[in-house]
Amino acid sequence: MSAVRIGERFVGPGQSTLVVAEIGINHNGNLDLARRLIEAAANAGCDAVKFQKRTVDVVYSAQELARPRESPFGTTNGELKRGLELGREAYEQIDRLCRRLGLMWFASCWDKASVDFMEQFDAPCYKVASPCLTDDDLLAHVRRTGRPVVMSTGMSSVDEIDRAVRLVGKSQLVLLHCTSAYPATVEELNLRVIPWMAERYGVPVGYSGHEVGLYTTLAAVTLGASFIERHFTLDRTMWGTDQVASVEPHGMARLVKDIRAVEVALGDGEKRVYPSELPAREKLRRVGIP
């Protein structure tokens, strides 16, 4: 299995885990909040941040946009969806801030126009969100950019994943195991899919978690996840559909620290006697008496 290069980093076996703070739509359409989230992710030690980009009138039907829905932006779902979208000027500022902080950033693009929009920022990769895994036209459009693809597999059958992998190709692909519930319960995380997926597809596999808590994400790393994505927020009680399934700054800092410790603790798998064991070996080693 070959590692996949994303920006200046490599993702795959033997590589340091790439940790992504999924800002998504937790900025609530507010550029100042987006900036604060980026700075908090950098301070927590994350390698990258990720946003979501949609062309609202393409992704959603007119009927869905007209559906009544109360939000800070108005009384329809369309007002909500449009209010959550950041435009060119906002992303230009995001790009400058991330470059200054030495932080990679990219986006889940939900339609072809959003991919074209993001091309101007020279993204290190594109994310295919779980709901988009069966959008053949979008997968082909993303593949034509020539950039690495990170694809989540929540709410997807094995046949659907097989088809998506065939369409995208394996040369620059990272798959993410995911359970698309917000928040996801421990009983439905099914983390043993991670090594199964790596063996079946022969590509680097990571984990996109929506659960509450951190220990299960550490378990994903021990099972071979080389790319970790967790939703990120400044405060889980803030307004927004993804906030409750997100990690706050102090939790993200702890998660990054613990992932790095787990990487060291896993070692290289070669059994040896360490110099630190020798005093105990000399003092306590028992041998058989003939």
Cα separation of the termini: 50 Å
The CATH class name reads Alpha Beta
The major sheet is characterized as: 8 strands, parallel
CATH superfamily: Aldolase class I
Sequence of secondary-structure elements: EEEHEHHEEHHEHEHEHEHEHEHH
The CATH architecture assignment turns out to be Alpha-Beta Barrel
Strand order of the largest sheet: 7-4-3-12-11-10-9-8
Question: Which range does the strand content fall in?
Answer: 15-25%
Percent of residues in helical segments? 25-40%
Total E-strand runs: 12
Number of domains: 1
Q: Specify Rg, calculated over alpha carbons.
A: 21 Å
Please state the average pLDDT score: 96
Shape: globular
Count of alpha and pi helical runs: 12
Uncertain segments: none
CATH topology: TIM Barrel
Assembly type of the chains comes to single chain
- Helices and strands: which structural class? alpha/beta
